[in-house]
């Protein structure tokens, strides 16, 4: 059997029916493009999440009120953290380099005729180094501001643009809950974190949130939304997590379930990675159905082709072609269709990934494994689904085939 001749005949047959061949390949093209694009977009989402977590601050940990189990059982979070907890962590945990208590809420911000709900964060001077923020203009909150509960604010970059476009905001006054605050600083742009705009915030001294904005709700001290903590270095993170947990359990006199959660960047990133990885796998599996549909389409078209080409098959058998020759002929045609669809689908899928990367924050990420797998699967599907029509063609009796023609 001459393989080169068989391949030439297969190509000639397929190109002789361009429209039918193109429609047959369509399922493979869509399947390959979908699988490659979904995996690439999923990996881009994971990289984006990783970059955003790095922007939270160096070696940062978070202490939040309520246990993970309690959060799963109910949406209501009991405020179990107070400022004294943050002070104790800063004083008694050697693996920690900085502690930034935070109390935050959505409040209407008014300047002139502009009224906009904005996230108001009450915090201390430690916020800047712990969360890796920078001041672009003016100054940040200092210890005197916190001790005196001063009515001053440091605003995010987007707040500065929205309220003071083309104007220096330093020295201007905003109103929060009908109380006037002086703008003393503007933060450098930070970007978004998991959909939350970190530049659309205003920051006030932590004590001011109690004395002016929201009052005191805990009998044990100034309650907090969460505590941001910076470990001394990356190697100190496990020790810091262990020491913080032990200290908090002693302070809260816990003997059973914790009423707080200590989470590291890697913990949160692992959860996000699990979610995005699961969604990527699900979308890729759904897209993979297109490959199966494409394989069925190839089988159907090849079966029709066998019926249409009975005279050709009978004539080839009459002049000496064996069943194996006919079988190989049809198998080559099926594999060529699926492989061509796989290559075109790969090009479309990669183009789609770069298009999404160009119009969204996601980084374009082409997975060589996904490309290899998609093309290999498409070729295998063509081979598998081409067996039935190839066998049917090979079994045709030459005399019956010539008569039926």
Automatic annotation (TrEMBL):
<protein>
    <submittedName>
        <fullName>ABC transporter permease</fullName>
    </submittedName>
</protein>
<dbReference type="Pfam" id="PF02687">
    <property type="entry name" value="FtsX"/>
</dbReference>
<feature type="domain" description="ABC3 transporter permease C-terminal">
    <location>
        <begin position="285"/>
        <end position="398"/>
    </location>
</feature>
<feature type="transmembrane region" description="Helical">
    <location>
        <begin position="327"/>
        <end position="357"/>
    </location>
</feature>
<dbReference type="InterPro" id="IPR003838">
    <property type="entry name" value="ABC3_permease_C"/>
</dbReference>
<dbReference type="Pfam" id="PF12704">
    <property type="entry name" value="MacB_PCD"/>
</dbReference>
<dbReference type="GO" id="GO:0005886">
    <property type="term" value="C:plasma membrane"/>
</dbReference>
<feature type="transmembrane region" description="Helical">
    <location>
        <begin position="369"/>
        <end position="388"/>
    </location>
</feature>
<feature type="transmembrane region" description="Helical">
    <location>
        <begin position="279"/>
        <end position="306"/>
    </location>
</feature>
<dbReference type="InterPro" id="IPR050250">
    <property type="entry name" value="Macrolide_Exporter_MacB"/>
</dbReference>
<comment type="similarity">
    <text>Belongs to the ABC-4 integral membrane protein family.</text>
</comment>
<keyword id="KW-1133">Transmembrane helix</keyword>
<dbReference type="GO" id="GO:0022857">
    <property type="term" value="F:transmembrane transporter activity"/>
</dbReference>
<keyword id="KW-0472">Membrane</keyword>
<dbReference type="InterPro" id="IPR025857">
    <property type="entry name" value="MacB_PCD"/>
</dbReference>
<feature type="transmembrane region" description="Helical">
    <location>
        <begin position="21"/>
        <end position="42"/>
    </location>
</feature>
<keyword id="KW-1003">Cell membrane</keyword>
<keyword id="KW-0812">Transmembrane</keyword>
<feature type="domain" description="MacB-like periplasmic core">
    <location>
        <begin position="21"/>
        <end position="246"/>
    </location>
</feature>
